[in-house]
Every structure is written in structure tokens, then in C-alpha cells.
Specification:
- The chain is 26% helix and 27% strand.
- The chain has 14 helices and 27 strands.
- Strands 1, 2, 10, 11, 12, 13, 14, 15, 16, 17, 18, 20, 21 and 22 form a 14-stranded mixed sheet that branches. An eight-stranded mixed sheet has the order 7-6-5-3-4-8-9-19, with helices on both faces.
- It is globular, with a radius of gyration of 23 Å.
Amino acid sequence: MNIGYFTENRKSAENPNKIAIQFEGGEKWSYRELHLRSNKYAHKLRELGVKKGDSVGLLLFNCLEYFALYFAIGKIGAIAVRINFRLTPTELDYILKDSKTKILCAHTELLEKVEPLKPHLQIRQYIAFGEEKFDWTLSSDELEKGSDADILDIDISLQDPVMLMYTSGTTGHPKGALWTHNTTFWFSTIQIMKWGFTGEETAMTTGPLYHVGAMEDIALPVLLSGGTVIITKSGGFAISRVLNIVEKEQVTDLFLFPFMIYEMLNLPNLADYHLQHLKTIYTGGDPLMPWAIERAYELYPHVGIVQVYGLTEGQPIAACLDTANALQKPGSVGKPLPLTEIRLMNDDEQPIPTGEVGEVWIKSPGVSEGYWQKPEETAKSFSNGWCKTGDLGRYDDDGFLSIVGRKKDMIRSGGENIYAAEIEDILYRHEAVHTASVIAIPDPKYLEAVCAVIVLKEEKKATEEELITFCRQYLAKYKVPKKVVFIDEIPRTPSGKVKKFELREMYKNSNLTTEGV
């Protein structure tokens, strides 16, 4: 069995002409079309020399071809490297080398970022999607020339790797979370068990497909059940556009990040949208503010609000706060999903009592196998099937989990994970920076923003805008500090560790005045 099963499940076999995937309000592919298209891509990739275990990079905006490529890669036993298209050339260079990508499929606009890296990469073939611009790429039309026959001669085990998802690193470099066919299948099955998907759903995802929140969350289990998945175009998010699609296509299940829900509830013409078919809104990343839950229930009492918690390597949805408890347990992430255990452990790796704070450990069939070719990092974060998340949590007397802090100093902004160490590593490259400490400060739209606290070297000068501009050269836009403050001395513990909690307290009321970041 492999993830090709998502294109040929029992429901789709009964009705192969049912729509499987749709691009917002436009092009649609049936299950038959998706299956045959992915077969064509699979055969062509094999003709290009892709073998079982080889890495194929996906540097693409949201498109229907993304699904066909992903399933094609899985059908031939290769590994899909799903890459954030917002990354800079410096960040792309590391990922493409670390993953040992052999073939890179990318939109032509994004290949412009890769072109200067070509002499240093071991990529054998570049496949361009969109208008052809380069003489060193193969047109995506060539993928259509492969056979649409089923792949029958590849021996694939459930334990074989199928996907690498790079997460921001705490040591300055990202790590590739390794997903197997087993991980993917079981995580979808766990969601089906939890929410009872039947194949009658029309689900809409609003995030980028390189992210588990847009594909593994909700979308893949709905496909596995035989339902329909609608994706949005990349960039230019507008909640009004999303609601138009929800209304027109009679969407039943919708994934929105919290800031999107806030924008929706603040629309002056919200009452004009007819959302009677919508059954559930899923959201995650941060707890919804109580006013938003109350307002949503007031306007749409028939719509359930499900808040989810998880992480790429530790099961993207490990716990959820169901509709019935949303108002009674504000700030909680709820209870574990089926087949999922969540324990809270102290620094000695022993369980802690109810009411006390400990590190969140997750165990389930949907937990990642570890980090790609990083045995030491894997050993630190994974133990006997458990993923040590680095998040700090507390259980209440009713068994509801709350996340109270981040052991790894992770910043959550607009649904993205941002690690302080990665940004600090860039800031230290600036000739004027003596000490850099990156913290989260409140953001009126994205909940948290990146703030850099800087100590300058003696007789050196730098401005806030200068350091922000410097970071833009090396970091994706969402990682660039929105605020830079200068300080004479960083507060430290007796052992020399930075007291980040003091810095967060000092700058929690910082005025975010920097524009265009």
C-alpha cells in the first residue's frame, strides 16, 4: 500500500467521476483524472531517472498539479520534499542540499531564486510549471507524456519514507521531519475516526500546500473518504474571497487560522454571505479569543468551532477542543485524538501530576519517524515512539490540556513556526552586532511578532531599518523582525543563559511601527 490509495479509495472506485480536487472556483479534477494524471507523472519521473528512495523537490504555489505530483512521487517509492516557496535563496540552498534533491519541480517565478544556486547543487533536472522562461528547464507539459497505466512493479512498504517537511531549526538550520506512508495513512485515519468523514464532505483549505495544515490536516482524510477538497490560490488572501467560495461551492468543512476568523467576524457585510451548508470550522496555531467564539456561535449556531493542536513532527493534530467545550474551556487545546497519547514530563523525563507544568510528549501512529539524516537531533526529540515537542503544558482536573509556554522559544506568527535561534544566527553575521536575542511580542493581527533585542559592539553603529534590511537578505519575509530594540546589556542567569522571560516582559508593550516587513 502507498499514498496512491488516496486517489483510488473504495468511494472513488464506486464513482470515479466525482470531483476530488478543485482550484478555488475554477478547474476541477475527478478521482479518475487525478489518478491517471498522477500515473503519468509517476512514469515520466521514472523515465527521468527517479528511483525508490530518491528525493523530488516541490517548490510550487498552490495548484492541482501539486496533488498529482505528490501522489506520483509516492507511487514510485520516492520522497517528496515539500518546500516553503517564501524562503530566500540562502534557505533554499540548504534544504536542497540537505535533502539531496535529484529533481526539482517549481513554478518559473520561483526558479529565479534557484538559478544562482545551480552550480552548487546536485539536481539532475528542473521541471518548470507555468510560462517557460529558461533553457535549462524541462516543461511541465513533458510530464503529461508519461503512461497513465498503474505502477505495479514497485515494492513499497508502509515504513518507507514518502515526505520531508522542513521545520525551522533551533540551531540555525532547519530539520527535515520524515513522514512514511504509514505516518500519512494513520494520521488521515485518526482524523476520520475523530470527525466521522463519510465522503459527502466538501472541505476547503486556505493554507499553502507545502504545509501540513493545508494537506495532511483535513484535506487528505477527506480525499481518503471519497470527498471533495477545494484549495485556494497562493497569496493575496482575502476572507471575502474565501466566503464567496464557501457559499458558491456549499463547503461543509473549512480550515481557517485564527487571524482569518477575526477578519471574517469583523466584516461589515458578513450577514450577506449564506453559509447554511457550512458545518465545521477548524482552526489552530493559537487559541481563539473568547469574544470570537461567542460571536461566531451567535451568528452561526449551526457551525462547530474545532480548535486543534499539534506539530509537523509530533502529529499535526494531536489534540482538539471540541465545539461543546469551546466556551467552557477557553485557552485549552482540548483532549487527545483517537489512538493518540499525550503525557506531560519533567526534566527527568518522569510524568508530572495534574495541575503542574511539564513538557508535552506525544505518541501515536501519526508521529514522524524522526529527522532526515540527523540521528543526534532525532535522539533528542524522539524516544520509544514518543515525540518530545518542546512545548510546555498543563492538564486540568477534567483532563483538558493547555499549552502554557514554549521550551524551545518558538514564535507563532500568522500560523507559521519561527525559531529564535535561526534569526539570531543571521543577526550575528552583521558586523555591528555583539549580542542578539530574539523574542515574541504581541501583534494586533498575527498574535505574535518577531522582536530582536540587540547589544551593539563598541564603537559600532546600526539602525533598526538597517538590521531589518540585512535580515531580509537571508530570511523569509515572515521571519524578519518587525521590531528591533537596542539595549546596553542582556539580562542573564548566573549560569549565563539569557533571561528571555524578562525581555518579553520588558517589551510586551512595544509599539509595532515598522511597516512593510
